[in-house]
Amino acid sequence: MIPTKSRFQVDNRKIVIFGAGKIGRSFIGQLFGTAGYKVVFVDTDRLLTALINERKCYRVVAKSEREETIVVRNVSAIDAADVPAVGEAVSTAGIVAVSVGKNAVEKVVPMIADGLKLRHDRFPGQPLDIIIAENMISGRDFMEENLKKFLPPEFPLNEMTGLVETSIGKMVPIMSQSDLEKDPLQVFAEPYNILILDKKGFRTPIPQIKGLAPKENIKAWVDRKAFIHNLGHATAAYYGYYLHPESAYMYEVLNDAKVSGFTREVMMQAAEILIEAYPGEFTATDLAEHIEDLLSRFRNRFLRDTVFRVGHDLGRKLGSGDRFMGAVMLAVRHGKPYQKILKAMSYGFVFKATDESGSNFESDLQLIDALQSDFENTLVNLLRFNPESDSAIIRDLKNYMNQISE
Q1: What order do you get walking across the sheet with 187-189 strand by strand?
Q2: Has residue 5 got a pLDDT over 50?
Q3: What one-character DSSP code corresponds to residue 24?
Q4: Total number of domains in the chain
Q5: Is residue 207 located within the same domain as residue 240?
Q6: What whole-number distance in Å separates Cα of residue 347 and Cα of residue 356?
Q7: Are 27 and 133 in contact (CB under 8 A)?
Q8: Is 42 in contact with 108 (CB distance < 8 Å)?
Q9: 252: buried, middle or exposed (CB in 10 Å: 19+, 13-18, 0-12)?
Q10: Does any domain span residue 3?
Q11: Domain boundary at 200, 216, 232, which?
Q12: Phi, psi of 351 (to 5 degrees)
């Protein structure tokens, strides 16, 4: 009897992307799609997945002085509720990416685990790499810990699954309702298309795709994103709002030399911390050039990025371990100054920017009210400060808060 060929085959030119949101479509999908990969999205939005399957393509509009429209073709989508179909897609993928927002990563892990088990049964010895396209600290450890909950103890996770951390630097603005109504699939983004990822995380050959930038020490580059890019962006939003509460867009507040100058000083202080923390990884010249490039990108008026988008969600952005306090803690460990970073953070305590409809982010208002009522306890209870080890920082922040409130 002649054996029949299995209908299940690994397609090395297929990427399965969990999350058909702004980063999934404008960044990961675009990079792989324009390189000739078949792009399969998995998403919970049934209207979105239906529209993707109807059109089999979507547009990415790169916003700059020279606006460019990129059409990503050979695209399909699976409703995340169709668990068997998701498992099949993962099992036969050439590579997988996760871009659902860090708070939703846990929800997709069981589906990925199902796909890994199917793959191991059908194609033993064929590893699968998973790009963790999320702005999260220790993304690899988080993904490994959660996958183990849904895989048998004997599953060779480390040998057969590459968990690839990334540093996501692409800026994607909130789109207006009118733009979304014109085309629900199109997505606006800046032209930047460099995906920094962990060279050591791969278990298969790294795809030879324009825009991929593998790094040996991914932690250094994740910290560079958090403590220069994210820190600088938030600084410009908070200080910009403090001086110009009437301005809606980032390019408007950054046209003020006071805002751009202070933002640069804060980012440069963070750069000095990174150079000390990661000797040999960054040079002062490299980081100074990176800061000027970021300031130019932050000023991109064609992107129409809003002060609200960049600054809102204070509970996360001002919390322990995020862009401000994470940089401060790194400075403390290496004996470097951090006062400018603390001062920038204090402007976030009075940040009340509104979205395009004139609405505030409700939890931000609650946090600001709590800070004004009981500053120290709010830092401890809501922003997760340590009342003992962070006592000097709490005192300094209180002094800065008093200064800007005068």
Answers
A1: 68-73, 57-62, 187-189
A2: no
A3: I
A4: 2
A5: no
A6: 22
A7: yes
A8: yes
A9: middle
A10: no
A11: 216
A12: -80, 120
pLDDT tens, position by position, 207-233: 999 999 999 999 999 999 999 999 999
339 and 302, same structural domain? yes
Q: How far apart are the first and last CA of the chain?
A: 88
pTM: 0.93
Q: Does one domain contain both 249 and 155? A: no
257 and 185 inside one domain? no
For residue range 343-385, what is the model confidence (pLDDT) as tens digits? Answer: 999 999 999 999 989 999 999 999 999 999 999 999 999 999 9
Q: Which residue has the higher pLDDT, 3 or 223?
A: 223
pLDDT recorded at residue 102: 85
Query: Is 74 in the same domain as 130?
Result: yes
Do 204 and 293 share a structural domain? no
Tally of CB atoms within 10 A around 406: 4
Q: Are residues 202 and 299 in the same domain?
A: no
Residue 236 predicted with pLDDT over 80: yes
350 lies in which domain range?
A: 219-405
Task: Please report the DSSP string for 269-288 in residue order.
Answer: HHHHHHHHHSTTT--HHHHH
Count the Cβ atoms, other than its own, within 10 Å of residue 179.
16
Tokens describing residue 54? 């109807």
β-pairing verdict for 93-98 and 161-167: unpaired
Q: What is the pLDDT of residue 7?
A: 59
Write the CATH number for 397: 1.10.1040.10
Q: Output b/e per residue, 54-92; b: 16+ Cβ within 10 A.
A: eeeebbbbbbeeeeeebebeebebbbbeeeeebbbbbbb
Q: What is the pLDDT of residue 406?
A: 73
Nearest to 318 by CA among 327, 307, 306: 327
Residue 332 in domain: yes
Work out the mean pLDDT of the chain and round it to a whole number: 96
The rounded distance, in Å, linking the Cα atoms of 185 and 20 is 9
Question: For 186, phi and psi rounded to 5 degrees?
Answer: -70, 150
Distance CA 172, CA 33 (A): 18
- Domain of 110, CATH number, reads 3.40.50.720
